[in-house]
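Bump. Still looking for Inositol-pentakisphosphate 2-kinase structure tokens.
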Amino acid sequence: MLDLLDIEGLYPLYNRVERYLEEFPEERKTLQIDGPYDEAFYQKLLDLSTEDDGTVAFALTKVQQYRVAMTAKDCSIMIALSPCLQDASSDQRPVVPSSRSRFAFSVSVLDLDLKPYESIPHQYKLDGKIVNYYSKTVRAKDNAVMSTRFKESEDCTLVLHKV
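Sorry for the wait, here they are.
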């Protein structure tokens, strides 16, 4: 689990940070909303406390953790395998031996740009649309099943067979 809050739990914290930034816009740089994403930034992310003390610092930490989690969930991992000869020495790339052959491999991680702070309201609205669509679909499906099973005007006969 990369983040402790879903978007519904995070959105009020995002709003707390937004209200603070509206009152103190010059703090945006100090709060590292737009970077730099350095060691100090990542050290703040290690705070895994779950008790909301009502501060902007707590809200900001949770918002930043969410952004990092969304980035990790959306990144791509590329693994390239290349067959290599049994006696070939592969000094440049690590080799994975298998029962019949050997493979040189490389691993790349793509799309590690931190998700934009400004995308959180969009994610909140999108999540709401998904939940509403799902609820309507399930409700409509349940209503259709119920209406075909139990029609009040339809007689029901129970037939018992001797076993």
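The mean pLDDT is 84.

Edit: fixed formatting.
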